[in-house]
């Protein structure tokens, strides 16, 4: 079945060639929603000198004519050229015509888009290829919703464009005017306008017909998924399920045909609902179709039309063309054959109900083959750059557009050796450090730092392999010189634990502390040492004890002072010894007490009291001398070690969305006790009343 008319012809013009340079012998055109159309043309020309440079990558237009009037034009870019045999009069050429969008297939790139909407990203892709003729007929959310982080990695610009649009629930088609073609992006079939061209059904018309009609119609159903459920995870809401189901009823299939996928590639409910709806629509895109054969010249992908005059009245309704294949032949273009064959045209259409939620097949996102190396970046005058979650930003070696600043990537989480509820390990990679970046589920949009590595510039703390037995934790002072260090030496016979504090070292033991040093203990304090013992102080020295004080020494004992020497007690001062008692002074010896000054002395022994001196005065002459008096100073107390910081009270409460999801899954919920580590309760309405004064 084909359309024939004495006044029908096809025309083609491309590049700077004259309009009559090429005659259409035949063409095949395939077009469908969310796919670039392709026209394969077989042409004849009296010129045998047409070269590829005359046509390739040049604009071209295929036109349908009827009785001298142009009925339709299809514009595009010549993407392929072939020159065949030459006869006595004409040379055969083959060309392929595609839309300007196909140019994006020739560009492959890796780059990062940050805080850009889908429309922003499309504008960049199209702008780089000089594509200006495009339009949006969709929800404005696609313009307003900014994507925090969107990566094109190892994809052609075309694949990237198709992946993003399909993910967001957009499809595209082309509109052709007298001088150009326009790409139109849309998000629902019901937003398409109804074609004014008629599609009457006429299965009885045979042979060549003068009036365009539908000659064959096959109404087709396919068993398909009845529901799509997506799930994802966000570290900001780790307890939230992010489960998003989407279902569609169908009388002729089971409701249990569920499509489940994780991760769903979304981080909030709004995107999750959209993505699950789009996924289901894409899975069911072929569940109900109408296959037509017609000769309607105006049939094109993305067109809404009304079928009429079909004996099954239920089919006489509005449909949308999602795919159409055109075939045209113009036998009289071959001058050498003296052919009288007429010009014919036919097409095969795939349509879906206009009320259908149709989406193109989802396009797989590229998977990262493995971890990658990156460099931590940040502001120019900063050394450490992070957010409240300890995330940092990096620049990948493949990112040609990054400038090595705080805009190099999104905030990226950093794996730590231990991560609990306000406890664990924390070591932030600093600007300039090389890190190893992995990707959750291979998703380039979900990087996570899982390791760090030295390189030729950032080298190890101690030369290797000379110090291969050392295990080192060494930091660097922020915006200063120096470092803190904890080092372990495991060389046999030289084992050592070394601790260095660039400034202060604070140790806090909440209970007992025990030290056992099996050899020597050396302490060297360059300035002051202060100690305070809240209870008793016991010191046992099994050998010799020595002290030297180059200045004054004060000893204050609020109780009794007991000194005992097993053999000899010798006390020598350079000037004076002053002993003063409030009540009495008793000197006792079992054999002898001697008081000596110059050549005089008093000796007391078991034999008696002996006085010797140049003169001995009793109650006459002389006078008692006075001592210097007590001048000791109380010790200064040591500075306090800061108490361990208690975690901030974190009320353990579920978000409303979490409660809704638990209810959806029929999960019983009981309120947990909110007691914190310090015994307090952060709730104003503590249900158990156990931790209120």
From TrEMBL:
SUPFAM superfamilies recorded: gp5 N-terminal domain-like, Phage fibre proteins, Phage tail proteins
Occurrences of domain Gp5/Type VI secretion system Vgr C-terminal trimerisation (ranges): 472-574
InterPro entries the record matches: Gp5/Vgr_OB (IPR006531), Gp5_Vgr_C (IPR054030), T6SS_RhsGE_Vgr_subset (IPR017847), T6SS_Vgr_RhsGE (IPR006533), T6SS_VgrG/RHS (IPR050708), Vgr_OB-fold_dom_sf (IPR037026)
Residue ranges annotated for the Gp5/Type VI secretion system Vgr protein OB-fold domain, each copy included: 388-454
Pfam families: Gp5_trimer_C (PF22178), Phage_base_V (PF04717), Phage_GPD (PF05954)
Family assignment from sequence similarity: Belongs to the VgrG protein family.
NCBIfam families: vgr_GE (TIGR01646), VI_Rhs_Vgr (TIGR03361)
Identification of the protein by name: Type VI secretion system tip protein VgrG
Organism expressing this protein natively: bacterium 19NY03SH02
